[in-house]
Amino acid sequence: MDQHAKSISFVLNGSTTEMLVQTHENLVELLSRLDLYGARESCGQGLCGCCTVIVDDIAVSGCLYPAAFVDGKTVTTIEHLDHDVHLSPVQQAFIEEGAFQCGFCTSGFILMTHQLLEQKPMPTDEEIRDYLAGNLCRCAAYPEIINAVKSAANKMART
Amino acid sequence: MTIHKPMPAGQVGRSLPRLEARAKVTGRADYVHNMRVPGMLMAKVVRSTVAHGRIVSIDTSAARQLEGVFAVYTGEDIRKIIPEPYYGPAFHDQPILALGKVRHVGEPVAVALARDAHVAEQAAQLVEVVYEELPAVFGEVEAMDSKAIVHDVLKPAGTFPDLKHLHGKKNTNIALDFHLKRGDVESAFASAAHVFEHEFHTQQVMHTPLEPMVSLAEPTRDGLTIHTASQSPSFVRIEIARLLGWPENKVQVKVPHLGGGFGAKLYIKLEALVAALALLTRRPVKWSLTMEEQFYTISKHATTFRIKSAVDGAGKVTGRSCTVYWNGGAYADIGPRVTQKSGFTAPGPYDIENVAIDSYSLYTNRPPAGALRGFGIPQLVWAYESHTDLIARELNIDPVEFRRNNILREGRPQATGTAMKDAAIDLVLEKVAERMNWSAPFDRGSGTIRRGRGVGIGFKASISPTTSVAFVNIYADGSCALYMSTVDMGQGSDTAMAQIVAEVLQVQAENVRVIHPDTDVTPYDMATLGSRSTFHMGNAVKLAAEDAKQKLEAMARSVGAPEGSNLETREIFKKKYGMQAGNVMGVGSYIPTYKSPDSVTGMSDNITPFWMIGGTGVEIEVDTETGHVKLTKLINAADMGRPLNPHIVETQLSGAAIMQLGFTMFENMEFDAGQVTNASFADYKIPGIHDIPPDIENHIVLAEQGGGPFGAKGVGESATFGVSPAIANAIHDAVGVRLTDLPLTAESVLRGIRLKAGNPIGD
């Protein structure tokens, strides 16, 4: 620990968490120290969306987000979505539509889809594409992802 | 989608979700990327800044003095553990860390180790290396007779008989030359009504799995455990044992899920260095590449393909010669296999009497090239299907009709002489034509938006002969597990193989537990590559399940159960062992028959256990003012026998086609003196959600693979084959411009349009 380490307190997936963080440490590194691996650093430039984390209700790229910045904030990761044991409608739809192959990018797509459906409960195909344009899937399960978003929207409209 | 009727027991042919689906949507799937073990050191390598040079000196003193650094090593340190530290599947040409010389920019030269990855990275930057630069060679054709020689002496690995003659060869960059001669191609050209000759190029691209390559080695009491994001755990174990002079059983290789592979994570990549470092430090060592570093580790071959065809007055191709140069980069990796295995299909899926093929694998001073989804086939199909289209246009014959007239039909000999079997090339072509509504009038657009359409079909032989082994373990409560070393990197092999076990044992596929590759536990498998697993491992799994079933039936008889009785499995065990105890272990081992090509003629009457067939049809719009190409329709069709899981197969088809779409339209590793100038997602664009055409269809033609498990065969690569030429053919159709180099950028389309209009754009 260098002299620039900073003590922070934040709400992580519903629980208050206190950590000592380095100034150069990013949010993905911090989460991995807490055994949360659903946000993953891939491109390291905030361009692929694999490291998506929700900070105060806004999706951010965890690989570009300094860990120290979550001090006093609320952080939600993919691991929180089934905290009551049940999968969210988005997660269910991703399974039913087969909207992933290797699964490495899936956390990011699911978190972004949640945010999209909060803002636009019945998005058009074009709105889905625009919203998810910052997430990359090298297996290219994009057609299935679009179907899953629409299916999740329908599931949520019914409930 | 065209699908088959489900199988009688209903487990094979079901579109059940992936077994690991819940783990993947909750962020909890295991990847080596996630792994940490107590006491682990992080490695960061120092990479060559020159393309070809002699190492004058390496100064690690400043790096070693940095606080928090555990150690800094060079190639000479590796030699203390491994005296001959050269690895590779085809040639033992790649040093674990450079020794004496570097052969490409980005080659690992030294390594820094620290508990903190940031410290290791900082230390790596403090290592000073002085090089004496040597002349470098970058182009594949240039490498044929270049004075710059990448390797002073060739060192074939000895695994492949057709490389033996290269042992000890000097003053050459040719890492394999494959030749095939059938009939008399020169006479065919001499007597032809028409002769066509073209040259095509493909560019170097990278797989960019989103989980960058990563390996972690731990020293154990009497050996090593390597956790690695690898497609070939059995090969890693054998190669590490060979390097260390150990028996195989001292090396354990474990592979969880992979965050994509596509051929990048094959054979041996990071494992040799982490193994050596774990032994040098007596600590666990993890080495994770960044996205940028991946571009310097493995790539897809750039190629030059010269193709020449003789055509008679009736539009029949009577002769074809193919000369293909493969840019293998600085280390052979599996390039020589690509040269041979793909080389013999270079004339395409056509019935051609006279054929000559010359295929060369070249060393250059670029980052190494190896396998990438298609194993060389997409590069070949790009050329032969562009060429085919050009011939048809020149002769004023409809491109689909021209293909129909020349297509390689069932029972007819392929270039090697092997008779085609269970290869529904004609069905794939007809399916594409039908879904394109090919015979109907086509709206060609107007004004500055011109529309065009095109098709491409290709085929691929399977790797052979290779072995797969599987165990099926039935426990005393009747539940069961499958032990296999096939790696699920997203293609769905866990699920498909569980379906095979379930079909045989008549249980639910969801209830079959699949044990991930662990060479201490799971048996040998050659590798997860080349769409081989469904056929090879599928057969081994089916045999293992059948063996378990027979053994269980024998156990039932031994405890006096009457023939055909419905005694529950748990009751059979209870009667046998007096309590819930014991196992029934079924074993399956599979290797297909094969005859290697004749060393002079390249001929063989049994060149492959099965053929993969893929076809693509596209409709596009070209903006004549900007050269921008918009894909409006994409039809994928494949013969992959009977689908084990139709939904996963569909995802594989569209996924493969979209990946190839990236290699066709924009992906391109750009170089400056051997350095990749766009090695990041900021500059190297891969397909995103906006690149997906609005209309995309996947079709599985009605076919069955003889000898395949439940009639199935592999499908992971098939939909890549036809994409590139289909789009180039459609561009030609739309605006009359023929592009012969990939990628098909808006700039090259616009240059073509302007050139044709007599108003060329200056450089």
Count of individual helical segments of chain B = 18
Radius of gyration of chain B over alpha carbons?
27 Å
Low-confidence stretches of chain A: none
Distance between the termini of chain A: 49 Å
**Which class do the helix and strand fractions of chain B yield?**
alpha+beta
Largest interface: A-B, 53 and 56 residues
In whole angstroms, the N-to-C terminal distance of chain B is 46 Å
The CATH superfamily title of the largest domain in chain B: Aldehyde oxidase/xanthine dehydrogenase, molybdopterin binding domain
Give me the count of strands of chain A: 5
Query: Which of globular, elongated, flat, extended, rod-shaped describes the shape of chain A?
Result: globular
CATH superfamily of the largest domain in chain A: Beta-grasp domain
Q: Give helix % range of chain B.
A: 25-40%
Overall average residue pLDDT of chain B: 96
Low-confidence stretches of chain B: 1-7
**Strand composition percent of chain B:** 15-25%
Account of the protein in words:
The complex is a heterodimer of chains A (159) and B (763). Chain A is α+β, with helices and mostly antiparallel strands. Chain A has 2 domains: 6-78, Ubiquitin-like (UB roll); 89-158, DNA polymerase, domain 1, CATH 1.10.150. Chain A has helices spanning 27-33, 89-96, 106-119, 125-131, 142-158, and strands at 6-12, 15-21, 52-55, 58-61, 74-76. Chain A has a 5-stranded mixed beta sheet, sandwiched between helices. The longest helix of chain A has 17 residues, at 142-158. Chain A is globular, with a radius of gyration of 16 Å. Chain B is an alpha+beta fold and 763 residues long. Chain B folds into 3 domains: 21-30 and 466-590, 2-Layer Sandwich (Aldehyde Oxidoreductase, domain 4); 34-135 and 207-294, Aldehyde Oxidoreductase, domain 3; 299-462 and 604-756, 2-Layer Sandwich (Aldehyde Oxidoreductase, domain 4), CATH 3.30.365. Chain B has a 7-stranded mixed beta sheet, sandwiched between helices. Chain B has a 5-stranded mixed beta sheet with strand order 9-18-17-16-10. A 5-stranded mixed beta sheet of chain B has the order 20-21-26-27-30, with helices on both faces. In chain B, strand 23 (480-483), helix 13 (493-505) and strand 24 form a beta-alpha-beta unit. Classes of the chains: A alpha+beta (159), B alpha+beta (763). Chains A and B meet through helix 2, helix 3, helix 4 and helix 5 of A and helix 1 and helix 16 of B.
